[in-house]
Amino acid sequence: MSRRFTKREIALKAADREHLLLEFPEDYKSVDNKIKLKCLVCQHNWETTLRSYLNSKNGCSSCKAKIISSVQTGKKVSEATRSLIGEKASQRRGSLLGVTGERHPAWKGGYGRDKIQQSNKDFEWKNAVKKRCHYMCIVTGKRENLECHHLDGWNLFSSKRYDPSNGVCLDKKIHKMFHDANRYGNNTERQFAAFLFNGFQLDWERIKIDLQQGNHQPSPPKSSLFQALDEAQDPL
Fold first, then answer.
1. Three-state secondary-structure class, residue 116
2. Which residues contact 115 (CB under 8 A, 6 or more apart)?
3. Dihedral angle sign, alpha carbons of residues 170, 176, 181, 185
4. HSE of 55, CA atoms in CB hemisphere, 13 A
5. Which tens digits make up the pLDDT trace of 11-49?
6. pTM (2 d.p.)
7. How far apart are the C-alpha atoms of 236 and 137, rounded to whole Å?
8. Cα 206 from chain centroid?
9. Angle value at C-alpha 56, between 50 and 60, nearest 5 degrees
10. Segments making up each domain of the chain, as ranges
11. Less CB within 10 Å around the terminal CB: N or C of the chain?
12. Considering Cα of 148, then 154, then 157, then 158, what sign does the dihedral take?
């Protein structure tokens, strides 16, 4: 439907369908422009796009509703058919509010984690991790723009998801730097240890012992990576 239609063509099309063309846009540009019509059968007036009208079998929604009603009136439906209709209807996305996890028909065996509306467990875990790390980044010692990082990934180690010892407090930039290098998901504590050593010359095992004893005091490492991070002007 790339070609332009004339008002006369649409009026003739409407007449064939027992419709009357009431309004046709003077500044007609495309088939997405609106037109107004009147059905001479049921006297129904309506507005639609030229595209919808040309693609429809008849175009009058009032007549269509009456035809459907007359066809369905008194029609007997078996219990098996009713059951199938109900099952299919329950699987429509609009009917699935509150249905989550394995009960959802789109479930693929993955894991769900809502990072926008976080649960009470998430908040409790974050607060415990921050307290354990003395409310500072374990690398830089900064107390602002902090995020909590799972050492052993949330998706791989379900038993450790809310274990405070499986988390550390990191500057937001450093947290992003880790995931940029190791991606999101399937992360491990071993990855984190290598990240600290290769990027900042820090011994994770030493830091972990200090955290367990409650006496870790971060000292900004003198590495080119840290200096570049510290000199960055734009927040990530």
1. coil
2. none
3. positive
4. 8
5. 898 888 888 989 998 888 888 889 999 988 888 898 988
6. 0.50
7. 16
8. 40
9. 85
10. 7-71, 120-231
11. N
12. positive
